Amino acid sequence: MITSALSQDQLLQLPAMVDLTTAARAIGLGRTKAYELARRNAFPCPVLRIGTSYRVRTVDLLELVGIERPLDADGLSDPDGQATRATV
Fold first, then answer.
1. Which of 7, 13, 52, 61 has a 20 to 30 Å separation from 88 between CA atoms?
2. Helix, strand, coil proportions of the chain in percent (round to 5)?
3. What's the pLDDT score for residue 69?
4. CA 70, CA 81: separation in Å to the nearest integer?
């Protein structure tokens, strides 16, 4: 079963690392195929094995699908897309 791919807005809201199932969903792959590719080191972006689980860095996933995070006023990545500056 293939779940629907994530939208650009959903991708930009992801945390720094996601599980393999979320990464697979982002690119339209099913869970079984994603794990098969990860075990063969053939997943389309780098996969980290942490204990018994697989994780994918969101930055690698975004690069794979051609999305850049918006930058804030300091030129840093703004994960929530708000690009606001804190006042002190």
1. 13
2. 35, 15, 50
3. 75
4. 6
Beta-ladder partners of 56: 18
The two tokens of residue 38 are 């990860």
Write out the two tokens for 57: 């860095």
The answer to pTM > 0.85 is: no
Segments of the chain scoring below 50 in pLDDT:
1-2, 82-88
CA atoms of 84 and 36, how far apart (whole Å)? 41
Nearest CA to 70 among 59, 62, 61, 78? 78
pLDDT given at position 73? 60
State how far the Cα of 88 lies from the Cα of 54, in Å rounded to an integer. Answer: 39
Q: Could you give the 3-state DSSP secondary structure of residue 54?
A: strand
The type of residue at 18 is V
User: Distance between CA 14 and CA 59 in Å, rounded?
Assistant: 10
